[in-house]
Amino acid sequence: MNTQLDALAYGNRLRTLPPEQKLFFALVLLVIAMFVHPPIHLAVGSWMLVWTVFYAGIPWRFYLGMVLGVMSFLLTSLAAIICNFASLAPDDSLWSWPLWGGQIYMSMSALQQAIEIFSRSLASTATLFFIILTVPFAELAVVLEKTPLPTILTELLLLCYRFIFLLAEVAQSIAIAQQSRGGYRTRRLALSSVSLLIRQLIQRTAIRYQQIALGIKARGFNQEFRFWQSQPYKYSWRYGLESIAGCILLVIGEIFYRIYV
Amino acid sequence: MSDYLLEMQGVEYTYPMAEQAAVKNLSFRLPSGRKTALIGQNGCGKSTLFLLADGLCRPQQGVILLDGVTLKFDRQTLNRWRQRVGLVFQDPEQQLVAPTVESDISYGLCNQNLPEQEVADRVRRTLADFQLTELARRPLHHLSLGQKKRVSIAGVMALRPDLVLLDEPTAYLDPVQTRNLLTELDNIARSGTTLLIATHDLDFVYQWAEWVLVMNNGSLLLEGETLAVFEQLQLLPSFEIGMPLIWQIWQTLPAKVRDDHQVPRSIAELAVITNLLA
Question: Which of A138, A152, A242, B180 has a Cα-to-Cα distance from A260 of 20 to 30 A?
Fold first, then answer.
């Protein structure tokens, strides 16, 4: 999944747009999503879907899987917001049911709150997925380097990004070796194999750390990780105009909603 | 530049907590501009020699010289030294640190505090030299092992070193990748860079190397021209390292044939002689 995310971020159709343009656009939408009402949240979510699936060319099944994955977590937590328990249900309760001498109920205000949380999360998640799926991590780090964030933070992020895949490869090769020798035949064996895999991974991480420390020194490490990256981006006026016009429309829509609803 | 680029005199090194020295009383001189191979059994100290030559391990005894200048272990000297001596590890993952191909090639250059324009120029030229331009913005974990190997060599060559140390460069590579790599190594050698390759592949050594160093138990056993070294190795049956296939076939030919012809250095040369026999 992670590798697929990464591959899509590197292969999407919006790759040539400057990462700053995509990030700024997404950040503006996140800010809008924080202050608007559910119908505008849905508009933000839908618009992001258009950008991610139609403009960037991310496979819709993959995108839907990601959104549903996050939303399933959210829906389970919404149940706790919608349903309440008290000795007496309040006046605005839509539904109540007696239980253990009290009442379990669903109130109008709780339902409105749940809808707002759900729609806001949907809009924010869609915006976040737009960033994840269209801006490769290395480019994100380059943008972060231009911000006042401490250099050590961006260096650590870059190194983590690089080595997460290395460790994933090692874990995969160990798991395959275990599988080929029947390591996951029964539940008991599987548990023991997983614990062995984790131990091996820790040991190999330590060895890998030593090897990489040597490798970095051999390449003249000079107290900080500095790289150069080409910037073959092209600002798109077409996408720029659409994003500006869209954001203005969202704000106007919110104003109308507040006036008339 | 003198005739000998790298020199070690009486070098000894024992790893922390180790009982035995990995390298003991090691002395040799590496000729400038020659394709040199370092051979020996597993654990004979080849990799340690490379770490010492790159200033990554500090010898407990002896001196290491580059162009007659002694290696000192202060940061400034080490930085300059590592600009001139490049080390390519057996496992490319060990030295690839940046997220993408072009950024990894730029890593060593950025460490030298070169101006950004020069870094960009050198990265682009190196990418072109190693036919990596199309992969420039690819993340390293999307590359095949052969491509990673090329990137690791390119990252070292971007620094324009005088000496490149390669530890088992053909390990894990398939025959096509090996052939491509050898072509690239020959190009590097032609550009005047001295290459020292540690390998177990004696067939490769026999055909490629001009000079050979043989290590045994942390010391230098033999050094010299390739043919001379293999002739001497033949006289040391207790040193079980094997012999190149071409050499073994050559030894089976009648003495008269061997007297009449020069020792073949390639399959093609050997084929010419055997065809004459037929």
Answer: A242
**Are B141 and A226 a contacting pair at CB < 8 A?**
no
User: Is B91 in contact with A211 (Cβ distance < 8 A)?
Assistant: yes
Contact A140, A23 (CB under 8 A): yes
Contact A121, A74 (CB under 8 A): yes
Euclidean distance between CA atoms A130 and A53, whole angstroms = 9
With 0-12 CB in 10 A as exposed, 13-18 as middle and 19+ as buried, what is A195? exposed
Amino acid found at A127: T
Q: DSSP 3-state assignment of A104?
A: strand
pLDDT digits (tens, 9 = 90+) for A89-133: 777 777 777 778 777 888 888 888 899 999 999 999 999 999 999
The SS3 call for residue B64 is strand
Taking the model in full, what pTM does it have?
0.80
- Kindly indicate the confidence band of residue A1, based on its pLDDT and cuts at 50, 70 and 90: very low
Pairwise CA distance, residues B84 & B69, whole Å: 12
Contacts of B112 in chain A (CB under 8 A): 220, 222
**Lowest-pLDDT range, A23-32, A158-167, B104-113?**
A158-167
B76-89 pLDDT, tens digit per residue, is: 889 889 999 999 99
Give the residue ranges of DSSP H helices in chain B.
Answer: 46-53, 75-84, 101-111, 116-129, 145-157, 175-190, 202-208, 226-234, 245-252, 255-260, 267-277
Specify the pLDDT at position B163: 95
> Which helix (H) or strand (E) element contains residue A71?
helix A60-82
Residues of A with CB under 8 A from a CB of B: 3, 6-7, 10, 136-138, 141, 158-159, 161-162, 165-166, 169, 208, 211-212, 214-222, 225-230, 232
Task: Lowest mean pLDDT of A218-232, B31-45, B107-121, name the range.
Answer: A218-232
Domain residues of chain B, as ranges?
Answer: 4-237, 244-278
Side-chain-side CA neighbours of B176 within 13 Å: the count stands at 3
| pLDDT of B165 over the 60 cut | yes
Beta bridge mates, A83: A106
Query: Is the predicted ipTM greater than 0.90, yes or no?
Result: no
Contact A164, A5 (CB under 8 A): no
Q: What is the pLDDT of residue A82?
A: 85
pLDDT at B242: 83
Homologous superfamily of B4-237: P-loop containing nucleotide triphosphate hydrolases (3.40.50.300)
Nearest-angstrom CA–CA distance, B256 and B278: 15
Q: What is the predicted pLDDT for the residue at A32?
A: 95
